[in-house]
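Entry type: protein chain
Record version: 2
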Amino acid sequence: MKIGVIGSGTVGQTLAEGLAGLGHEVYMGTRNPEKPELKAWEAKTGQKVGLNADAAAFGEILFLCTKWDGTQEAIELCGKDHFSGKTLV
């Protein structure tokens, strides 16, 4: 299954890595995909890291893994159309 993970902190990375380990294709979204720790995560897992909107467009199911104070901005960066017809966890 194609899964979009919105949020690249500890929770997002851990969840994305676990889902990838189960054989899912994961795209983790963030505001800044060029962070060195995210490039290292991408190299370690073989999964994709990019912008929130790209992860939201990619996923058949989406996991929202943001801190509460960043949730509204993350959703806005995804674009509301990318949530249409998808399950959001």
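Comment: The CA atoms of residues 6 and 46 lie 17 Å apart.
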